[in-house]
Each structure stands twice: as C-alpha cells, then as structure tokens.
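Notes from hallway chat w/ T.B., transcribed later so I don't forget. T.B. wanted the structure written out for a chain they're using in a teaching module, and asked if we could keep both sequence and structure tokens in one place. Agreed to drop them here.
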Amino acid sequence: MSEPSKWDITVEQAVQVILGNDFLVRGPAGEVLDVAGIARQMEHVWSLVVVECIVCGTFTKRSVSMSLGSRREPGRSRCSSCFALPLAPWQDKFFEAHRLTRDHGGYARLGERVAARCIDCGAERKVSISELKSGVAPCLNCAEATDPDAVHVVYVMHFPGLFARKVGITSTEVRHDRIASHVAQGGILLDQHEVPNREAARTVEDFVLRAVRDFPSGCTARDFPQGGYTETWSDDGPDIDLDNVIARLARNEEPGFDRLRKLRAYFASEPATIEELVEFRHIETIEVDGVEVHQLGFSEPLEQVLRKIRARRVTRDVEATETA
C-alpha cells in the first residue's frame, strides 16, 4: 500500500480480508500475485482489486471495505457465482419450458443474454430470462414457421432511442409474439391490425416500406438483436395509417387479400354443408332494450372457416382415392 501508516491493519491482513479462502489475484502474465503484488494495487480501503474465484474461475472486484461490510455465513463462499449455483437448475427448467436448451454453465443474471438452442428446430440464439418473461419469441426461426394461412398481425412501432420506426408482422400465437420482443428492447407500439394470412401481411409490409424508402433509419443488426432492422425508417418520415393501407389493399384484392374471393368462387358450386359449418359456430348473448338476444356467428374469420373446410375435403378425397 502506498501509505500503510493510514491503515489500522497490516498489508498482509488487508490482503487476507479480500482473498480469504475464496479468491486469488493474477498479474498481467497470468501469474498468481503475492501479498506485495496485490498491495500495490490498493491505495485505500475502498480500492477495488480484480479477484478470481478459486472454485469456478469467475472474475469480480472486491475491496477491504466491501469485504468487511458484508456479512458472511460460516461455510458460505463469497463468490456470487458459486453462491447462486443452486439456481442454475431452475434456470435450465425455465428455458426448457420455453422449448429452449440453455447452453450456459451455472447461474446467469436475469437480464444477461445466454446462448440457447431451440428444442424444436435446433436454431441458436442469445436470449435472457427477463426477455422471455416479457413475452419475447423464444425462437425466431419457429416464429417465422407458423401456419402461413393463419391470421397474422401487422404492426408499426417507434424506437425513440434509435430515432426510428418499424413495420413488422407476427403470428397471433403468444409464443411467436414479435411485438413483445421489440417492446423488451425499448419499442413503443403505435398501431396493429389483423390480416387474414401471412401473404396479406407481407403485402402490407412491402407497401409501407415502399412508402418510406426515402427515409432510411441507419439502424443496423446491432441495434436490433431481436431481428428486424431492415424494416425500419427514420422517425422524421411520413406517418403510416395501417387501417387505410389495409383497406386500400383489400379493396384492390392485392396478394393475400384475394383469397376470400377465390374461396367463395369454389364454394359457389359446392356450398358448405350444415355439418361442415357447425364446428365453427359461435353464439354470443347480448342485451337489446332489456331483452337478451342470441347472435349466431363464426368462431373464426370467414376466410379461415372456408379454408379449413376445403382442406378437409381435399384430405378426404385423397384418402378415398388411396383406399379405392
């Protein structure tokens, strides 16, 4: 120490307070430092020294005042990683519940992104427990592999910290919610609308990106670890009204929005039967002028109902042909 006379303990005692039986300190070449070498790094009781856990090898910083000020239970390691080690199995199970295998030894902080592999498709990514708890899609690859004929959501978000806006699409399944992924990274949801299928969602996304192509955001993949930086534009660009965009594209029966017309043309010659439709019935009770009224409708959008009925007919015809 530079001025050992200011200390109430000896250099050796100060070093032992920091190291105890848990840590060691290495020099620039990786050599283990002796008391004198460690003391040269300590000017005051609050001077931090980089120490290495002798059990797990984790590096951390400690000082005399920090060590004296922390209570220590007999037999308990002062290494936070070793102390938290029993929590690692819980974290492994948490990842498995989200269909991920965690590739990280020991405990990780809740906000720390760790390597993980999708159990279903094998895709790799880095994600934290905090992000998964906030609703981030566990696997971006699986999120893209959802049923292309199912209802999708088109959304517009604002990222104030990046001075950018973004358009994107996501499945309506909670597990594949890309909106939550962006909110976890500081995004603010401005607008969202459902469209009948992924093709329609892509049509809307492409239309928006063409409308804002003269206002690049300058964002990179580093700004969007959750993916999607190529669908951004500067927030001083034009505002996007998704309702008007979707209404225009649907009116013109652009790709994805023309499927209902095609389905209706198919069923015009072969109408759906009561037996085929009954599975999709939905009864809602409302009150009108004090009288309960039962409204009968579909549990899903008409396009989805007709699509599923036609798919079942095709499957039935194929099975009939194979057994003929």
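Follow-up for T.B.: Residues 302-323 form the longest helix (22 residues). Might be a good example for the class.
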